[in-house]
Amino acid sequence: MTNLTLTISLPAHQHPASSKRLLGLPLELRNHIYHHALVAPPKHSRTHDDDCHFRYNHTATSIEPAACVVLDVTVDPVPLQYIYRHDRLSQCRCAKRTTLNLLLACRQVYREAAPIFWSANTFVFDHSDDFTICVGAQLRPAFRPLLRHVYVASADREENPLWTTRNLFSGACIPPGDKIPRWLQFWGVLNQCRGLRTLAVQPEVMRRHGADFAALSRRLPALERLELTWMGKYKDDQASHVPNRRSFRACESVQREMVFVRAARSVDLGAADFGGAEWCKELYRDFTTNFCVHLDTIVRNRFLGCGADGPDRYRIELHTGRVEAGLNDARRTWNVELPTGKTARLDFLAVPQSRETRMRLKRQMRARDAARRASGKPTVAEERAAREERRVERKRVVRRGVEEGLAELAL
C-alpha cells in the first residue's frame, strides 16, 4: 500500500518572514529590481527636477543650465576649472545617481547588484584623466572588465603635450628627468576594461597613438562602437566675461546665458588601415577641421541666428529673437545634414524653456506657496530672502569687528 501525502498551504500571514523580503525573492526578480533601481540614463541626458532652483525665474530667452555642468560633485579628481575659497557655488544634485545606497544593504546584495550597476550603465567623464583616476585608481580591478559603456566629452579641449610629470594614481609629481608619455596611463587603464562595447573619446586621445588604436580590437574584443566626441559652448556676448578655466558652477552670472551642444562621429572599426599613423592623422584632421567646423557653423547660423558673413557672424545674442523658435526643452535633439552629405545628431544640453514648461512650473510654484502660507510657513522665495539677509548681516558684523580691532590697534 503506497503512502499518501497531503500538502496543506500555509495562510499568507504564516509564511516565513524571509520569503517576504528582498533576498527571499527568486534571483530573476531580484535582478529586475536591481536593474530598475541602479540603471539610469547617462548624466548628460538628465534634466533638472521640477523643484530645482535652476528651473524657476526663467524668461522666454534665458537658458536653463544643463544639469550635468552644474552638478554638485562629491569628488573632483581633476580640478581643471578653478574654484576659489570665496566662491559661492550655484549648483544642484539633479544629475546624481540617487539609489546607490542599495549596494550598501548587505554583502549578498552587493555581490549580486554590483555587476549589474557596472555593466548596464553608461559612465560619463569630463576628462580622460577623470577616467584614468576613477577607473584605474578607485575602481576595484575585478570590476574594470565589467564596464560596458564609457563616454568622455568636454567643452574644454584636452591638453595634448607629449609628456607629463604627474602620476595620476598617486597624485605625486614625477621628476622632469623621469617624465612619462602623456597618454600612457590612460591607455593602460583602458586596456583593462576588456568588456567595453561602446567607447566615446575626445579626438586628442588618438592623435599620436595609432599603435594603441590598432590594438583596440585585440585588447577590447567586445568593442562594437567607437566614437569621437565634440561639445561646443556658446555664451551670449552681452553676458559677463568668464575667464578661461573658470568653474561654471562658480559663475552664476552666465549660467543662464550659455548654450551647450554635444555630438559624436562613429569610427569604422573595420577599416583596412585602422590604427595606422597616416590613418590616425587623417582621421584627426578630418574630424577637427571638417566635422567640428561644420557643426559649429550649423549651430551658430541655424540655431543661434548668427549671420553667415559680415561683422555679426561670430556674435551670439540669445535675447533678441535670433534663436531658432523650436529650440527649447520640448525638443533638444536635432538631426542636421552636413555639407559632406552625411547626417549628424545634435543634442542641446542647455536650452530655453518652452512656454508650456514655464506655465506649468508657475502653477506648481503658486500651489506650493499657497500650501505653505496656509500652514503658517514662509514661501520658498521668502526663506531665500531671509537667508540672504542673515548672510549679509553676518558679513556686516564681521566687518564691523575687524574695523573696531584695527581702530584699537591704531590708538
From TrEMBL:
Residues 380-391 have a biased composition (Basic and acidic residues). Pfam families: DUF7730. Coiled coil: none annotated. It comes from the Eukaryota. Keywords: Ribonucleoprotein, Ribosomal protein. The keyword Ribosomal protein applies. Residues 22-202 form the DUF7730 domain. Residues 366-391 are annotated as: Disordered. GO terms for cellular component: ribosome. This is Ribosomal protein L32. It comes from Colletotrichum navitas.
